[in-house]
Write a structure and sequence with these properties.
The complex is a heterodimer of chains A (211) and B (544).
Chain A (H helix, E strand, L loop, with lengths): L6 H15 L8 H42 L4 H22 L18 E7 L6 E7 L3 H7 L19 H13 L9 H13 L12
Antiparallel strand pairs in A: 1-2
Chain B lengths: L20 E2 L16 H5 L30 E3 L10 E5 L7 H4 L25 E6 L5 E6 L3 E7 L13 E8 L4 E3 L4 E3 L5 E4 L7 E6 L4 E14 L23 E17 L9 E4 L5 E5 L3 E6 L2 E10 L12 E6 L6 E6 L4 E5 L11 E3 L12 H5 L3 E4 L5 E5 L3 E6 L8 E4 L8 H6 L9 E3 L5 E5 L4 E6 L5 E5 L9 E2 L5 E2 L9 E2 L11 E4 L5 E6 L2 E7 L3
Parallel strand pairs in B: 31-32
Antiparallel strand pairs in B: 1-13, 2-30, 2-35, 3-35, 4-5, 5-6, 6-7, 8-9, 10-11, 11-12, 12-13, 14-15, 15-16, 16-17, 18-19, 19-20, 20-21, 22-23, 23-24, 24-25, 26-27, 27-28, 28-29, 33-34, 34-35
The chains are: A mainly alpha (211), B mainly beta (544).
Chain lengths: 211, 544
Amino acid sequence: MECAVDAQSLISISLMKIHNSRTQRGGIKLHKNLLVSYVLRNARQVFIKEKYAEIYRMQQYDEVLTVCSEIQQLNPLEAEEEEQPRAACCVEEEASAQPAARCRTPCALEPSSAHCSKTTVLDLDTHVVTTFGSSISDVEEVSDFCHKRAKREDCCFSSPEFTDTANISNLISIFGSGFSGLLSRQADLEQICSKQALASLGAWTRAIVAF
Amino acid sequence: MRVPVLHKQLGPSHRQGEVEKRTVSVGSPGRVARTLDCAACLLSGASDAVIIAPRAADTEAPSPPAPPRSISDWLWRRQCGCGAPNASLFTRLPAPEKMKCFSRYLPYLFRPPSTILSSTCHTEADIISTVEFNSTGELLATGDKGGRVVVFQREQESKTQPHRRGEYNVYSTFQSHEPEFDYLKSLEIEEKINKIKWLPQQNAAYFLLSTNDKTVKLWKISERDKRPEGYNLKDEDGRIRDPSTITSLRVPVLQPMDLMVEATARRIFSNAHTYHINSISVNSDLQTFISTDDLRVNLWNLEITDRSFNIVDIKPANMEELTEVITSAEFHPQQCHTFAYSSSKGSIRLCDMRLAALCDKHCKYFEEPEDPATRSFFSEIISSISDVKFSHNGRYLMTRDYLTVKVWDLQMENKPVETYQVHDYLRGKLCSLYENDCIFDKFECVWNGSDSVIMTGSYNNFFRMFDRNTKRDVTLEASRENSKPRAILKPRKVCVGGKRRKDEISVDSLDFSKKILHTTWHPYENIIAVAATNNLYIFQDKVN
């Protein structure tokens, strides 16, 4: 293909499409947005797999380094040089404890604070407005988050942060824990993703509405 | 002939149960084409709207299902003066300076001149969004994005001019839907006509259903060729007469007048759909019809506008669990209790309304398992079905997804009996097609009268026909530039790689803004109507 086929660009293109559909005439088209979300899901899965593989490689590298450093413990002069790559690996490792592609975002490394996020949704059929509040300080609730009917409010896409890649990554994480019907049965990944998502919810509490 | 005067009555906004009356008068239908003036205008190509009357090489009367002809024998002819034409081309929106040639029959009389654009571009409102022949093939209806419906009528044969048989002329034009605003949801409702379906003719008037995203309307198109004359209290101009001048009474008499075609909205079926209506289908019992949106199918009675029955509802309890939507639904052509609906996941469900009031459980489920070798980011998009059509004999179903057309036997659910590749060369371009939104285009597909040939559209104004018996296929182009007088439509070919031959066109030179989404086939004869953006092409086959 002649265009950028990598997952990241597809993700940003898809998000822009969803964003633009809000202002299109005739209202949000459910079918088109559903298809775009499928592309988003596929791209995200590929992106996660790539990141996972990369982290796995880094972990293996780290193990190798540990072995090397043990061997070279007798040599104090080289220990200094090893520390830097080890530190880097440690950072990666910590980030990988909450894996999924959010390692770069500064918010991702923040400890999850006791933020309360409220989301409201308007059901188009019954015209019922429902408000959900969830606290992420409770780790148990985190695992249920995916299963809860967490609906989101459509909003501030006009904010300039939207184009920031970091926030797009955040958005993906949030989006990933929604539309749960679209996610494949990767239970572990899902749990981990949701933890990650909630960790960054403080910075980005709103995302795409599911009508 | 007299220049037609347009009367447009602005009725009240659509409220439940109220009927809005719109009257449009057009010049005498059937005589329009003969008033074409300048052949020079036509030949120079300066005009945008060229009416080309068809020619019948034989003079025999049309008869129901003629034997299928070779699909490569499509003849397109251009009329020069009183020449021998074979096809018709109707274009939307000519330039103002050309209005003098074609203003009499073009459906833009009600547009103020300031909005008429030049011939090289067109407004979005003129993009044709649906085409449909009626059940006899006498009438052809088109709907556009501006909410207008234009109906063409086939000219009757005349013994004096046999070569003019079968030409389609504008019969009626009316504004079917207007843009609306839903204040509750802060949504604008587009006036674009999504589908038109004809009702079989039961009396002198014609009836059709037209729908936009939210409202279905039943329109009655009738002719008026007599008017009462000789009123007592008012004179011919409508002025009230002075009662003192009235000395005798007379009975008004019906006098013939120039034929006027009126369109009136007889029923308005509204407020039943939360999501966008994508299709309507009239039942073979001629009393009911279904309207389908993304998540629901509603059953209506043609007489009752304030009530509809929901027969399919796939909305999940939690919208986050939504995985598929309904993309199209159609009634079986003979069995009034059976209908089918297609989904965005590439499956078709056949339902029997006798089993339960809510037809959520299907009788038959048609799906072909996905080939894992062709998996890509866009697999879900290209497997979404954009159109489903029953064959005329009711034994087969045809579905169109982005790259293929599939024919299913109703008795076999696990795979289609035939699969035709429409433009497989696009498989490698899916990414850029996704970026420019072309991958979301919804192509339609259509059977011919005898179910032996199927047709569907593509890009670059190409359309494809597949002969199911001979397994031959042809790619044709709907364009004015490539046609010469008395020319046969030349088969086109897209070159996929390697050396490009002289007449072939490479995949990269395809114009993706020129797409043929809507086509229709005459129920008995080999006449097709093809909508290319704002142009309507009508082709007939050549009779040897």
